[in-house]
Amino acid sequence: MLKPKKEIFKKEIKRDPFLETVDKIEASIEKNSKDYLKIFGGIVLFVIIISFLINSRNINKEIVSSSIGNALVALDKGDVDKAKFQFETLLDDNSGSAGIEVVHYYLGKISYERGDYKVAKEYLDTFLNSGFSVDLLTYGSTVMVSDILLKSENYLEALNIISEKIDKSNDNYLKQRLIIEKAKLLIESGENVSGLALLNELNQLENISSGLKSDVEEIIGKYQI
């Protein structure tokens, strides 16, 4: 089992798409509560994850109520080092247990934030391949992995993973978020025409939320000639 490095990495993160999107979601909750009711942030996400784990078959409920719960609370309070240590200990002691998949996600996210992209990708790939079904975590993992691939100049691979998750997404809001990420990736890679066409198509949908429509129009306005 991969042993993540213990030191804190201080590399500058040029683009942090997952955190940027989560920040936008959290900042818009009051303004667009109907649009964002199903988007999990902070303690709401904590409750949903714990609920999912408790209802999983063969889950070790003691792990859910103590170790994972404590780590998520520490992370929510901003104590990243404490959360990281608890997640690592939990993974070492319970590898293979039902519900442990969420630990790979959070260790991957922490590594990504610290610029340790190789470790982050290994954790996130493990999470994505596990079949764990909390849509926001799958969305976050997909965007972070695609960004890591893009940083390594693996453009086609980055595009493919986003396209794959768009096809498999069951959540309309997050599916549209992924379409926006795909369009941004196309634009960043010089394919402005294709990226803008995707955004214009998305902008014409009747079921697009006001928050997403605003984001789409902002990007179109920035790049359209």
* Mean of pLDDT: 76
Number of helices: 12
Sketch the topology as an H/E string, one letter per element: HHHHHHHHHHHH
Give the overall form: elongated
Structural class, please?
Answer: mainly alpha
Query: Would you identify the CATH architecture of the domain at 17-165?
Result: Alpha Horseshoe
What does the largest sheet look like?
none
Cα-to-Cα separation, first versus last residue = 50 Å
User: What Rg do the Cα atoms give?
Assistant: 18 Å
Question: Uncertain runs with pLDDT below 50, 5 residues or more?
Answer: 3-19, 21-44
CATH class of the domain at 17-165: Mainly Alpha
Q: What is the assigned CATH homologous superfamily of the domain at 17-165?
A: Tetratricopeptide repeat domain
Tell me the total number of β-strands: 0
- Sheet-strand content, in percent, reads under 5%
What is the name of the CATH topology of the domain at 17-165?
A: Serine Threonine Protein Phosphatase 5, Tetratricopeptide repeat
What this model shows, in words?
- The chain has 225 residues and is an all-alpha fold.
- The protein is built from twelve helices and no strands.
- The radius of gyration is 18 Å and the shape is elongated.
- It has a domain at 17-165: Tetratricopeptide repeat domain (Serine Threonine Protein Phosphatase 5, Tetratricopeptide repeat).
- The protein has helices at 17-28, 33-36, 43-54, 61-76, 80-94, 101-113, 117-128, 135-151, 155-168, 172-188, 192-203, 210-223.
